[in-house]
Design goal:
The chain is of the alpha/beta class. The chain has a single domain, classed as HUPs (Rossmann fold, 3-Layer(aba) Sandwich). The chain contains six helices and five strands, in the order E-H-E-H-H-E-H-E-H-H-E.
């Protein structure tokens, strides 16, 4: 069984509850579950169009969304990071010593064929087991 499981969250996708159920199954009662959402870097020039962006408010809103999605499922630690999703998730998994990453995969499409999906990047760069949900 896994001891520390990282769930890579995309808040615009619907894999949250299934991912937690899988994490509890793979880790049992003693597993620590960390739900991570990655916010893309906001380019500096965007201030010209959008004004100053409150990154702390964005992070707090994302954490609240994570916890709302899970409801009463259990003890889950929400974490919001900034960066490129695929690489940031794997770097953070290494940093916290996660032994499993669970992430969802989008349906295949032409843009993912050329660019690679976040799930594919997590699989490519991860130093631990990866479970992909479809």
């Amino acid at each position: 069984m896994y001891k520390k499981i990282l769930i890579a969250m995309a808040l615009d996708q619907g894999h949250g509850k299934r991912a937690v159920e899988l994490a509890k199954h793979l880790g049992g009662d003693g597993a620590e579950i960390v739900a991570v959402h990655v916010v893309d870097h906001v380019p500096g020039f965007s201030r010209v169009y959008a004004g100053d962006i409150d990154k702390e408010k964005i992070a707090e809103t994302a954490k609240e969304s994570i916890m709302e999605r899970f409801g009463d499922i259990g003890d889950i630690q929400p974490v919001v990071l900034e960066g490129h999703a695929g690489r940031t998730v794997t770097d953070y998994a290494d940093e916290i010593g996660a032994d499993c990453i669970i992430c969802g995969a989008h349906r295949k499409g032409l843009s993912e064929f050329f660019l690679g999906s976040t799930a594919a990047r997590i699989m490519r760069y991860s130093n631990c087991s990866v479970h992909i949900l479809r």
